[in-house]
From TrEMBL, chain A:
Belongs to the 4Fe4S bacterial-type ferredoxin family. RnfB subfamily. This is Ion-translocating oxidoreductase complex subunit B. The keyword Translocase applies. Coiled coil: none annotated. It comes from Candidatus Accumulibacter affinis. One of its GO terms (biological process) is electron transport chain. Keywords: 4Fe-4S, Cell inner membrane, Cell membrane, Electron transport, Iron, Iron-sulfur, Membrane, Metal-binding, Repeat, Translocase, Transport. The gene is rnfB. GO terms for cellular component: plasma membrane. NCBIfam families: rnfB (TIGR01944). The complex is composed of six subunits: RnfA, RnfB, RnfC, RnfD, RnfE and RnfG. Its main location: membrane. HAMAP family: RsxB_RnfB.
UniProtKB/TrEMBL annotation, chain B:
This is Ion-translocating oxidoreductase complex subunit C. Keywords: 4Fe-4S, Cell inner membrane, Cell membrane, Electron transport, Iron, Iron-sulfur, Membrane, Metal-binding, Repeat, Translocase, Transport. It is a peripheral membrane protein. The lineage of its organism: Bacteria, Pseudomonadati, Pseudomonadota, Betaproteobacteria, Candidatus Accumulibacter. [4Fe-4S] cluster 2 binds at residues 383, 412, 415, 418. The gene is rsxC. Its EC number is 7.-.-.-. [4Fe-4S] cluster 1 binds at residues 373, 376, 379, 422. Residues 364-393, 403-432 form the 4Fe-4S ferredoxin-type domain.
TrEMBL record, chain C:
It is found in: Cell inner membrane. The chain crosses the membrane at residues 21-43, 49-69, 76-93, 99-117, 129-146, 166-187, 225-258, 270-291, 298-317, 323-342. The lineage of its organism: Bacteria, Pseudomonadati, Pseudomonadota, Betaproteobacteria, Candidatus Accumulibacter. Its EC number is 7.-.-.-. It comes from Candidatus Accumulibacter affinis. The keyword Translocase applies. Pfam families: NQR2_RnfD_RnfE. This is Ion-translocating oxidoreductase complex subunit D. The keyword Endoplasmic reticulum does not apply. NCBIfam families: rnfD.
Amino acid sequence: MSVAVLFLTLLGAVLGLALGVAAKKFHVDGDPIVDEIAAMMPGSNCGQCGYAGCPAAAAAIADGSAAVTLCPPGGKALAQTLAAKLGITIDLTALVDDGPQIASVAEEICIGCCRCSKVCPTDAILGAAKQIHNVIREACTGCGNCIDRCPTEALVMQAVPVTVQHWVWPKPAMVPGAFAA
Amino acid sequence: MGIFEKIFRSHPRWGVHPNDHKRPAADTPLRSLPVPEFLYVPMQQHVGGPARPVVLVGQRVLKGELVAEAQGNVSAPVHAPTSGRITAIGEITAPHPSGLSQLAVTIAADGADTWCARVPVSDPFALAPEEIARRTAAAGVVGLGGATFPAAVKFNLGRRLKVNTLIVNGGECEPYLSSDDRIMRDRAPEVVDGLRIVMHAIGASEALVGIEDNKPEAIAALTVAAAAFGNVHIRPVPARYPMGSDKQLIHTLTGKEVPADARAAEVGVLVHNVSTCAAVHRALRRGEPLVERIVTLNGGALARPGNVLAPIGTLVVDLLRFAGVIGRPARLLLGGPMMGVVLPHARVPIVKGASGILALDASEALLPEAGPCIRCGSCTRACPMGLLPLEMASRIVAEDLDGATGFGLSDCIACGCCAYVCPSQIPLVQYFSYAKGELSARERNRLRNEAGRRLAEERLARLAREAQEKAAVAARRKAEREAARAAAAAVAAPARPPAVRAVRAPSEAAT
Amino acid sequence: MSSPLHASPVAAPHAATASTVARVMLSVAAALLPATVYGFWLYGWPAVHLWWITIGAALLGEAICLRLMQRPVLRVLGDGSALLTGWLLALSLPPWGPWWVGVVGGLFATIIAKQVFGGLGQNLFNPAMVARVVLLISFPVPMTIWTAPSPMLSANSPGLVDGLRITFGTLPTMLDAMSSATIFGYARTELSRGVDLLQALAAEPAPAISLLGERAGSLGETASLLIAAGGLLLLGLRIITWHIPLAMLAAIALPAWLMHGLDPARYLDVGTHLLSGGAMLGAFFIATDYVTSPNTALGQLVFGAGVGFLTYVIRTWGGYPEGVAFAVLLMNALTPVIDRFIRPRIYGRDRRGTPLEIDA
């Protein structure tokens, strides 16, 4: 009896010590997944998701308080990448994705006030005071921050036009029981 | 398995043998299409950057005159296919399954078909290889087998990598098509001269012309034409789809296998199509840019199938009218039935790579409903690349695109053998096209995100720098003011103005 | 991201072979026909009745599931896969077995072994063999009473109505009178009694090893040569490849030849192993089932060899006299593993998938 008690006590003490040492030795600072997710995000810190920038959104996704579908500029593609990263399945049919969007300036209405260019996170809007502004397509991330700033509603979001070069074949219609999913 | 392979497998072990439907169209003599009233010349008829129009609406052009210039390293210029007046520069439906439009120059033909001034070369072999490449590029010659890669870019690549063997692709393994067959029969001397010019341009010492053995007339014609040249070898190859694919033809003719991440030139061979060789001949010997091509018109819905010489930019509807349509075609294809694309309608122009227009009738254009995969493995046996189409497709169905990539999706050449043999009629090629497109869209998106992130970081750095500079300027102003005040205080006493200027000078530079 | 104009254009290729799933299944059924008809003649009307009852039950099971899943019943049944499953199962049952064996087996094959897994193409195990093994384990007595051949039109062959009565169990005495043993069952019994095979096979009641199979057994077991002929037909039609049958038969023959050479008194010879039991049916019709066998040639060789070797092991040292069904099921379970590790070499890459070296 006493041997058993002694043995179990000893066993508990040794294992507890081992766990304690391991916790100290293999301690991880921060959650590496947050950095990995942040690296996948658009990184323009546009704030459309409601979080203060992409790193904050990444942290929220990592701790589960935000959905992977939160990022409008990232769209469906980002949601899929994030879901794959986190190993979760999401229903993308509910996610409305009009494809990538970019801002464009209606030149006849623009008054050259420069308010939009100040809020553009990627410096994608060109133009000096009293000059018609222009959006550099390649640099625009489609965050939409500029839209509300325009006093004359000259800025609108537009779908990036699909060209012959960028067109993607649609996935074939699903056949019931065609493949193991 | 060496011995097993020899005993139990006939060569080649890949591919399929579809009914070729090539005759009678292939045996019908070549006809010329009367120049249509309007021609619509697309700016993107090749792999690479689209050409940029250099003409204005209303301008008169002669046949062969430059209409659009090449843009970028991989690109090709476009020339006027006939003489006439430019009536529009705008969008037209592209010969593409999406039905999307692309930029094209519209020419109203004047009917005279007058050539511009041409500069023929009497002895191309006296020219430097670079000069041949330059002239080929200027003539807008692209790969006419369907890939439409600018020919001159390939010449330069071949020369740089010291290619020894030129492989001339006369395989034409696609059913229904016979434009290459026709050019080999009717213009054999041009083909042979053209391929010798190409050999000179890339510095190759021998040429192997691979022709499927279902084209005996073409083999005979080229054998005669090449008889005088000891380094040009005509090699009949078994008729087996996709023999006309570069990798399969290289392997059949030379036994060399092109590594997965390498180009054919890196193993010392370069492939050019027979029609491309003929176009090179015309570009050099006659100074004629690529403005017309032989197009096969075939399919059950046509009354007079055959091959026709048509100017680039001819509308498909004009070609169909020429060949006579019986009833209403069930499906219009650009290219052959194995790899060709569906045309959204007949008002699309033909391009340099348009080897054939097929008007299939209802019995040819079956649209069987896909059933479940029974894992019969037919696709695996048919795949010329040694892939497992059924495994890739099952991953793609489950949206596991990376899993499909792990099964070799990037090695798929979209030849269509798998879907052709599938007893369940699963649209395997479409699954792969979808996955490839989706993956490249994701890659584009990733690059875009990266660029956006870099720009955002640069902006933050700029804002920080500006704030810093503002602070510096403010500090300097403050110092200036204090200096001025000190100076003013010192006015009563002996003054020292140069000190003030010395302080102000850098602050002016900063603002 | 599809175009607004043409939501789903038709993708290449715009040509297809005439091959369809239904054509494949019906060709297999046709290849089974000679052996089946011969079996009918050999065992008389009860065999015919059990055959159609089993197929009917298999079709019924499939139809019930399709109905529940709201899928088109007639069109899917038309692919012939349930028919073939029922047929193969019927060929592996005792010809004079009671009706409910066929019904339970047929329903089990299509409902549990096939549709529960997701239907055609999704099942891990061969449905007919699953059903056979389930029957064998659950109802060992009716599954091991074999009838000696009594060819139709012969004196003691039951007529159409008597056949029905035998199948539906209202004529029990006749069955007992005619029961016999299969060659493997006989060999095992004799060995366990301490009689060696040399004596046992020479003795009077030993089942004959005739090429046309006039001996006790299931429909698919006795006429091995007709089954093999059907298999060669499938090979000729390119519906199956040679890899699985050859590997399986070789893997049975090789250990049989070795062991028989070592001790003929304890181990049966090669001919008996190949021509008796389910070896031929298994090699050409069961193990070659597309769904449950590997996809690559090399994988099929491994698979076939595994089935053959396991068959020999179970027949010789296992608890049951016949082992094809168990061997097939065991190798079915290994198929995903085989497919995972044995893949064809991709053009331009080595077997591990790394690009080839450039040698200009």
